[in-house]
Structure prediction request, 400 residues.
Amino acid sequence: MGFILAAANAVGGTFGDQWREYYSVPSGVSQTVGVCLAVPYGQNSNRNANVKGSQAVISDGSLIMVPEGFSLVTLENGQVTGYIAQPGAYRWISDNINSQSIFAGDDFMDSLVRQSWERFKFAGAPFASQVALFVNQKEIPNNRFGTQNTIYWDDPFFNTQVGAIARGTYTIRIEDPILFVKNYLPVDAYIATGEPFDFGDFFNPVNEQLFNEVAGSLSASFSQYANSPDHSGRIMDIQGDALGFASSLSHVVEKNYSWLADRGLRIVKAAISSLDYDASSKELMAKIRQADALMGARGNSNLQASFAEGLANAGNNPDGGGLGMAFMGMAMQTGGYAVGNMQQPMNQQQSPYAQQQNMQTQNQPASDPYGHLNKLKRLLDDGVITQEEFDAVKKKTLGI
Prediction:
């Protein structure tokens, strides 16, 4: 007792021309519908006219067309009696020994479906009348998530916790229709007068629960994404990596709420539409951007301008004491000192002492240039070297 395959990969219009009456998916079904009742097509129903699913009970000899992207589950008193995952045309036969109860195909996910079939299949011979449900196995879009309060995660790039209010969307797929129907679908969705179960209906308590579980998993998902060795560590990359973030989000959701194991659901893609960072995180990012601006070729120009400004400020101090502090400030801003690569040739006559100091400057580690210049400043103040010699060494050291 079960189904017999009448035609593989049947197209609705062609099938409708060959068979006067048959059951299939309601016309104009939404992309966000997860489960809907089978509706009759043909002479009595005026093809494509029935969209409410008020006659989903099939009986001996009924013809059913399963389109691409959908599977069929039949029920009797809430128990699963049949399952079809292969698109095509089928006839329900109540007393044929060659009929089958399950057409699950050969793909990888069938192992999950077959386990659910053995777990939930009808014990005994079902009656001739069955309730027929179509389950959408396409990627279901536009499932929204968001947080009212700031969430925090450990960010390796900033080496601290970062906080933001996040909003976005994710797509899901029903990987195991039998498990979804038995464990998660509300009963009123598969009674004969039931409305389609739509993931787009946020006011449905079932969908609200999914929303809350995703929102509760965002902090751990962000942290996992940022700290994954497969990513750069910059959380900003998450807004352009729908698959990478979905993998982190799906992993956390499965760990916390067992979507696939208990409900047959899986998150496929996720997209962040906005990240509104809190005040402390924005301040930290501004400092990081300032430091980034002082790196590389552009950083050399910015660095020289900063040193020139520091020297000008130091010149306003009569005792020159601000010189060392100006250099120290520049070094602290750049996380080190790298003017050794900006040295320029000197075209001035130098005393033997200045030449010796120049050689020492070239060989001196770049970590403490202001210390060396402070020593020279004291020699200048003591009259050991001239102002011209000091200026020449200073230009050589600073590359100005």
